[in-house]
Design goal:
Length: 469
């Protein structure tokens, strides 16, 4: 094996490990939230900010990741991302209250947001074109494994050690990654890197953050209706101002012309509303199992395994069905199945037989994973030329934004139903039931968007294996 091939293989493993760290930390926290809340003297039903802060930070940083890599160099940025991720993890473990933990998760999210896009860019510039698809497929595997082991590992660490270790395990991996990056990764700053649309970025970032905070303001920040309305208006105004700016700018962050591609427009909006509902499940299910059914963190993590296993198993069948039926039939039907599978949790009770609950999670996991593959390939399949990079970046941003907003919506709905029904055990059961149904209905709403797909869309599409979800 030549030195060049050894370096390429090491680079693949390095980027794959970075992606694994990112996806693992997106799920490992969920089963530990009640234990963290108890240790920090906070309510387990108001811990969503720990998840939302991480996802929202990633959504905010991703649009700038390409420019940052060009300006400062892929190698330097990847090492910096690993350092920030490891440092944020250390601060998370040292946190003494909820505020400190949220701030530490923001720092961790900055590093996490750069790991995948910058790593993917390193592969694009280092791996020969005829090997790129295979390389990206290899890097995608950890994205499937992370959510599979995250909840179980988080629950096990909480029971055998303490919740602090769900963050401390990142430190040795981060240090090893920094050393490996300094040896195997290349990529100096580009001498003529393009100008960055700072004004547009600030408008878009402020709008995303403010609008997302409005969804979480009532339950997490304790703001009254006036504060929520104020945040909502400022968020929408900032996003509107961005699109006015983009229409007049010669080199905007995201050009409005990108929405002239119908499949991209439908795919992005469908991603937003579909994930808005379905992304709440990894947050709600462990919380329900521990708060209402008295499960231990490890057992709650194990109960999520059917959902992850079904998600991996369905992947190979998705392209076949899309080719056979087309995107319109597949996405409209599957969206209805996801919404119904989520709403079926309305009939849960505290004495539920475990295998029935597992079957519900298995069905949801299969439908949801199938949805991700169909939505993402629809979004990217018609991209070419000048819109390829920005379209892919926008999809990643929308995914993270929707996931964070989904958790915030679920927490807000749970808080509202708790106020409506009460806080005793039976009332909390009704609050969780109603929240599951509510989030299922939100998911169902995206079927109206997918209904706009033309019947012929996807019949001759080349499904891109480079889609990471």
């Amino acid at each position: 094996m030549t030195e060049e091939s050894k370096g390429s293989k090491a680079l693949l493993w390095l980027v794959a490990c970075g992606f694994f760290m990112q996806t693992l930390d997106g799920t490992i926290v969920n089963t530990a939230l009640p234990a963290i809340a108890k240790n920090l003297d906070a309510s387990p039903l108001r811990m969503q900010s720990v998840v939302v802060a991480y996802l929202l930070t990633m959504a905010m940083i991703i649009p700038a990741s390409g420019w940052i890599a060009d300006k400062f160099g892929i190698r330097q940025v990847f090492i910096g991302a690993l350092s920030l991720f490891a440092l944020g993890s250390l601060f998370c473990a040292l946190s003494q209250n909820l505020t400190q933990l949220v701030l530490s998760r923001i720092l961790q999210g900055v590093g996490g947001a750069l790991l995948l896009p910058v790593g993917r860019l390193a592969l694009l510039r280092s791996i020969p074109q005829d090997q790129f698809l295979q390389a990206i497929s290899f890097v995608a595997v950890p994205g499937l494994i992370g959510p599979l082991v995250g909840p179980v590992l988080g629950g096990w660490l909480v029971e055998t050690a303490s919740w602090h270790w769900i963050f401390l395990i990142n430190l040795p991996v981060g240090v090893a990654g920094i050393i490996a990056s300094s040896i195997y990764m290349k990529g100096n700053p580009l001498p003529n890197s393009s100008a960055f649309d700072l004004k547009g970025y600030l408008l878009l970032a402020f709008g995303m953050v403010t609008f997302s905070l409005a969804l979480d303001a009532g339950s997490s920040l304790g703001l009254q209706k006036a504060g929520v309305i104020l945040l909502t208006i400022f968020g929408l105004a900032s996003i509107a101002a961005y699109w006015i700016h983009a229409a007049r700018s010669s080199k905007p962050l995201f050009s409005p012309r990108i929405f002239s591609i119908p499949t991209l427009s439908i795919g992005l909006l469908g991603n937003l509303f579909s994930r808005l509902g379905s992304s709440s499940m990894p947050f709600l299910v462990p919380l329900f199992l521990q708060v209402n059914m008295g499960y231990s963190p490890f057992k709650a993590g194990l109960m999520l395994l059917p959902m992850a296993i079904a998600g991996i198993g369905i992947k190979r069948f998705a392209p076949l069905l899309i080719y056979k039926l087309g995107y319109r039939k597949v996405l409209v039907t599957n969206t209805l199945l996801i919404g119904l599978s989520m709403s079926s949790f309305f009939w849960l009770n505290s004495s539920e037989i475990w295998w029935i609950f597992s079957f519900q999670l298995f069905c949801f996991g299969a439908f949801n994973s199938f949805q991700f593959t169909a939505m993402n390939t629809l979004t990217l399949k018609d991209l070419n030329g000048e819109f390829t990079s920005s379209g892919n970046t926008m999809l990643s941003m929308v995914q993270m934004l929707a996931m964070g907003m989904g958790v915030a919506c679920a927490a807000g709905a749970l808080d509202a139903f708790r106020d409506l029904f009460g806080q005793d055990t039976e009332s909390m059961l009704w609050a969780f039931r109603s929240t599951f149904a509510c989030m299922g209905v939100i998911t169902l709403s995206s079927s109206f968007i997918f209904w706009q797909i033309k019947n012929e869309d996807g019949r001759s599409a080349v499904l891109k294996d480079s889609v990471l979800d």
